Amino acid sequence: MNDTSSTKTYYIVYFALLSLTLLTCALSFVPQVGWHATVGLGIASVKAGLIAVFFMHILTADRLPWLTLLAGILWFSILLGLTLADYLTRASLSY
Amino acid sequence: MANSHAATHWHHFDDLEHQQQATLFGMWIFLATEILIFGGIFTGYTVYRIAYVADFEVASRQLNLWIGGINTLVLLTSSLTMVLAIHAIRQGRSHSSALHLLLTAALGTTFLAFKAVEYYLDYRENLVPLFAFNPAEWAALNVRPEHVQLFLIFYYFLTGLHAIHLLIGIAVVLILAWMMHRDHFSAEYHSPIESWGLYWHFIDVVWVFLLPLLYLIGSRAT
Question: Is B50–A33 a contact, with Cβ atoms under 8 angstroms apart?
Answer without folding.
Answer: no
